[in-house]
Amino acid sequence: MTATITRPKLEPAVPPSHARLRVGVIGYGYWGPNLARNIAQCSETALWAISDLSPKRLASARDLFPLTTLTADYHDLLRDPDLDAVFIATPPESHHDLVIEALEAGKHVLVEKPLATSVEDAEHMAAVAERCGRVLTVDHTFLFTGAVRRMKEYFDRGEVGDVYYYDSIRINLGLFNHETNVIWDLAPHDLSIMLHLLDQPVRRISAFGARHVDTNVENIAYLTLEFDSDLLAHFHVNWLAPAKVRRTIIGGSRKMFVYDDGEASEKLRVYDSGAHLCDSREDMYRAFVEYRTGDVIAPRLDKTEALAAETAHFARAVRGLEAPISGAELGIEVVRVISAAQESLCRGGVPIEVSR
Questions:
Q1: Are residues 136 and 161 located together in one domain of the fold?
Q2: Is 352 exposed, middle or buried (0-12, 13-18, 19+ CB in 10 A)?
Q3: Which residues contact 21 (CB under 8 A, 6 or more apart)?
Q4: Per the domain annotation, does 9 fall within a domain?
Q5: Residue 349 domain-assigned?
Q6: Dist. CA 28–CA 68, nearest whole Å
Q7: Whether residue 244 is found in the same domain as residue 348
Q8: How far apart are CA 45 and CA 137, in angstroms?
Q9: What is the pLDDT of residues 115-135, one digit of tens each?
């Protein structure tokens, strides 16, 4: 049995203060260390405790956060009356039970994406959060990047016009997941960005994929999304690419965007370009397309680390100062679309209606 390492009671890692939200991390594997670091560095939160089943990971956490409570049993966090919230970074199939336990223990929750592995579980989690009066948010980190926040400003001001298409590619070499396919792993990133920017629900989705290198899950997939309007969206996700690419192109009638997260400096380019159908004065029976090409700008972006911005936002949301950007409603919608994509994938690409 792994022993529990307890924080010295007279020397807390962060002095208790009404200005700081006391947060624990459940799961210190791939993403947990990033969560812990940002909680510890944020002026609005205090890293109160970390839970993980691995003694090796707990030892690593002890080196970085020697005065933080470390335990192999996450129930120690949920029983702690001084703990305000938990950040959960565990496999998706564990999210439902862990989140429900945390909410019913009176903790606010941020959980890694996707919110759940089924729409029913996601909706149940949201209902429990509402019943318990606790904040439930999903770690859709890219919503807090400077580029996405700047694009959101353009959309909210109505400067994009009618959106014609949304093309996204997110590919890299690994990491292979033997339990979850590439759609569930990578597509939530781009879906959350798209749903955050657009005020249109996905109505129908088709998905094609393939399995390679003797895996039992798809490592490459193409998704086509349809809406009530003429907007068409296309996602390409792939674990088997020789280069890491994270690029999104959005075409509107007034503005177009190229968002390249792999760029070191100019991650976002905004094009004052567009096209519209008009009548030729020379020939009233002939219609032609008029193209507009204007300035291309690379706007100055906030360089705050996305996870740092998300952590501070979560603390303000818990205090009721801001509405959650990545709340349960968005988390449910992402799971709803991914579930429809999974059904289409299993049925050979047949278009599936996204039911609500």
A1: no
A2: buried
A3: 44, 45, 46, 84, 85, 108, 314, 315, 318, 319
A4: no
A5: yes
A6: 13
A7: yes
A8: 16
A9: 999 999 999 999 999 999 999
| Burial category of 233 from C-beta neighbours within 10 Å (exposed 0-12, middle 13-18, buried 19 and up) | buried
The tokens 């996450």 sit on which residue? Answer: 74
Amino acid at 215: T
Query: Token pair of 10, please?
Result: 């007279």
d(CA 172, CA 186): 10
Q: Kindly state the tokens that stand for 121.
A: 């579980």
Same domain assignment for residues 163 and 66: no
In this predicted structure, the answer to whether residue 292 has a pLDDT above a threshold of 70 is: no
Residues 110 and 241 in one domain: no
**Tokens 């997941």 map to which residue?**
177
Q: 249 and 170: one domain?
A: yes
Domain CATH code at residue 254: 3.30.360.10
Rounded Cα distance, 328 and 335, in Å: 10
**pLDDT tens, position by position, 194-237:** 999 998 999 999 999 999 987 789 999 999 999 999 999 999 99
Tokens 């439930």 locate to 136
Q: Which tokens sit at 185?
A: 């792993």
Q: What is the rounded distance in angstroms from the CA atom of residue 143 to the CA atom of residue 146?
A: 8
Angle made by CA atoms 46, 52, 57, in degrees to the nearest 5? 95
What is the rounded distance in angstroms from the CA atom of residue 316 to the CA atom of residue 43? Answer: 11
The span from the CA of 180 to the CA of 156, in Å, is 35
DSSP 210-260: E--TT-SS-SEEEEEEE-SSS-EEEEEEESEEEEEEEEEEEEESS-EEEEE
> How many residues in total does the chain contain?
356
Please report, for the domain that includes residue 26, its CATH number: 3.40.50.720
> What domain range includes position 158?
143-264+333-353
Overall number of domains in the chain: 2
* Separation of alpha carbons 98 and 284, rounded Å: 66
What pLDDT was estimated at residue 174? 77
Phi and psi torsions of 309, nearest 5°: -65, -40
Q: Classify strands 108-112 and 136-139 as parallel, antiparallel or unpaired.
A: parallel
**Paired tokens of 16:** 């208790």
Whether residue 13 is contained in a domain is answered as no
